[in-house]
C-alpha cells in the first residue's frame, strides 16, 4: 500500500473504491479538483521504504445474532492488527496524494462517494465522505489525523447502513500508522 493510499484511502479497506466527481450525493460535496487542491496543502511524502500498521479499534454490527457476531469479530480479528511494508518511489512521491484521490473519484462496484469535507492544514487532515451504492447501501466515513513527509497517523470511522446488513447497520473504526524506515531496498 502506498503512503498516499494509506493516508487518504483507509476507507478502501472496507469499500474497494468509492467515488464520483458529481455533487449528487450531498449538496455541499467537494469536487475531486477541490479535494486534490486541498490535499496539495499536505507535505509531499518522501520517497523510501515505509512500514504501515493497521489496527481495527471497533467492529460492531448491532442486531447480529451473538454466534454470528463472534464469527465476524474473529474474521476481523485476523485483520485487527496488520503490518505491511512498501517502497514509495521518487515518481510516486512526486505525485503526492493526487493519484489516491483520483482513484476514489473513479468509482467501482456501483459505489458513488463524495467528500462532504476535506480540510488539510499544517499536516492535519479532517475529511468526511458519504457513499451510496447498490441495494440501498449507504456509508458515512470520517478520516482525521496527521500526515507528514515521513509519517502519518490516521483514524477512520465508518457507519455503513443497508438492508443486507443484519440489523441494518455496521460500525467500524480503524487506526493506521505509516512511517518511513529508510531507503528502498
Description:
The protein has one domain. It is built from five helices and seven strands; from the N terminus they run ααβαβααβββββ. The protein has helices at 3-8, 32-39, 66-78, 90-95, 98-104, and strands at 48-60, 81-88, 112-121, 124-132, 138-147, 151-161, 169-182. Strands 2-1-7-6-5-4-3 form a seven-stranded antiparallel β-sheet. It is globular. The protein starts with a helix and ends with a strand.
Helix content: 10-25%
Name the poorly predicted regions: 1-27
Main sheet makeup = 7 strands, antiparallel
Mean pLDDT across residues: 78
Total number of domains: 1
Helical segment count: 5
Q: Name the overall outline.
A: globular
Give the topology string: H per helix, E per strand: HHEHEHHEEEEE
Proportion of strand residues: 35-45%
Radius of gyration: 17 Å
How many strands appear in the DSSP assignment?
7
Q: CA-to-CA gap between the ends?
A: 16 Å
SS class: alpha+beta
Strand order of the largest sheet: 2-1-7-6-5-4-3
